[in-house]
Amino acid sequence: MTFDRLTFDPNIMGGRACIRGMRITVAQVVNLVANGMTTAEIIRDYPYLEEEDVRQALRYAAQLAEEEVHPLPAG
Predict the structure, then answer these.
(1) Percent helix, strand and coil across the chain, each rounded to 5?
(2) Which domains does the chain have, with CATH numbers?
(3) What's this model's pTM, rounded to 2 decimal places?
(4) Which of 4, 12, 63, 68 ranks highest by number of CB atoms within 10 Å?
């Protein structure tokens, strides 16, 4: 899976995952969706975003959530 619309630049938003080099992070987009905004509403409020930007932000977040955590054995 590729994320060609996501950028990681230490000079933009501290290197966090951003949409196409802009100052809007994946976390911001995911938070908007989590709080009930539709893709159409997000694009209305952020007209420089495109549907594919929102889709890739959500796919990236979903991929991060798939990460496996292996706790250390007790003792």
Answers:
(1) 45, 5, 50
(2) 6-64 (1.10.10.10)
(3) 0.85
(4) 12
